[in-house]
From TrEMBL:
PANTHER family given in the database record: D,D-DIPEPTIDE TRANSPORT SYSTEM PERMEASE PROTEIN DDPC-RELATED, OLIGOPEPTIDE TRANSPORT SYSTEM PERMEASE PROTEIN APPC
Organism, scientific name: Rhizobium leucaenae
Subcellular location: Cell membrane
Membrane topology summary: Multi-pass membrane protein
Name of this chain's protein: Peptide/nickel transport system permease protein
Record-linked Gene3D superfamilies: MetI-like
């Protein structure tokens, strides 16, 4: 008869990864910051009095008050509403560009690893070409071609971000393709679609999760930088980047600090929180963590 201790099932790899994530204090702190911010960003139209583009001519450049918690800007728009709307647009751009770049990167990396020698050579040379382009210049050229707006910004960030993921996925699946079950699938006539989504995707899901979390923070920064330069989200739509761009004059920086302090603080908090979560997920999914 088995004892109670030996008959008890050990936790699976996902449960152990979740336990390791909860032991990471920085990751838990990131969750505690990111979740309330997300709830505020998504729900503010239901309970906040002002809309992002409502103009109050009697309260132009007004400081924080009980009516306007974060003050107003130079034309009387509520900064609190614009910060939350900017967060909504920034997160939309970041999430959409991350999904698109993850799809492109996974397909390139998986096809390179599983489709044969010629596909590997061609796809990796293309990845090398993209990675050798200067990222800042490439980003500005793409932005000037695609134009301003949410979806052109999503496209620009996606096209810049996928090559690193493609290399990580390829590295993982090169080992996978030598496994017995993959070779058996090939021998039974499995096509590239079956190999990609039946074997490749489940074995690269940890890479995709960690990449997506860290890429969201990177995409928020890229969107803010493009909007700050006038190549991302165009006014009057609110984003953290174009709010900082509107407040970059010396007079605003010195006399009306709330117009740049709150969007800049929200940007920093969001990026730090998401990076902490991403670092926690990376450590939780690291196979070497089992040895610690």
């Amino acid at each position: 008869m088995f004892s109670r201790s030996t008959s008890r099932r050990s936790p699976g790899p996902l449960a152990r990864a979740f336990e390791r994530f909860l032991l990471n204090r920085a990751a838990v702190a990131g969750i505690c910051v990111a979740v309330p911010m997300l709830l505020l960003i998504l729900s503010y139209p239901l309970w906040w009095t002002f809309q992002p583009n409502d103009i109050d001519l009697l309260a132009m450049n007004s400081g924080p008050t009980a009516t306007h918690w974060f003050g107003t800007d130079g034309v009387g728009r509520d900064v609190f509403a614009r910060v939350l709307e900017g967060g909504r647009i920034s997160l939309l751009v970041a999430a959409a560009s991350t999904v698109l770049s993850a799809i492109i990167g996974f397909l390139f990396g998986a096809i390179s690893a599983l489709a044969g020698r010629w596909a590997d050579a061609v796809s990796m040379r293309f990845v090398d070409l993209v990675m050798t382009l200067p990222p800042v210049i490439f980003l500005l050229v793409l932005a000037s071609i695609a134009g301003t707006g949410i979806w052109p910004t999503v496209l620009v960030i996606s096209l810049l971000s996928w090559p690193l993921l493609a290399r990580m996925v390829r590295s993982r699946l090169l080992e996978l393709r030598e496994r017995d079950f993959v070779m058996a699938s090939r021998g039974m006539g499995a096509g590239i679609g079956h190999l990609l989504f039946r074997h490749g995707l489940p074995n690269a899901i940890d890479i995709l999760v960690v990449y997506a979390t860290l890429q969201i923070a990177n995409a928020i920064l890229l969107e803010a930088g493009l909007s700050f330069l006038g190549l991302g989200i165009a006014p009057p739509a609110a984003s953290w980047g174009n709010m900082l761009n509107a407040a970059r004059s010396t007079a605003v920086l010195e006399q009306y600090p709330w117009q740049w302090l709150f969007p800049g603080g929200a940007l920093i908090l969001a990026v730090l929180a998401i990076n902490f979560i991403g670092d926690g997920l990376r450590d939780a999914f690291d196979p070497r963590a089992e040895l610690n």
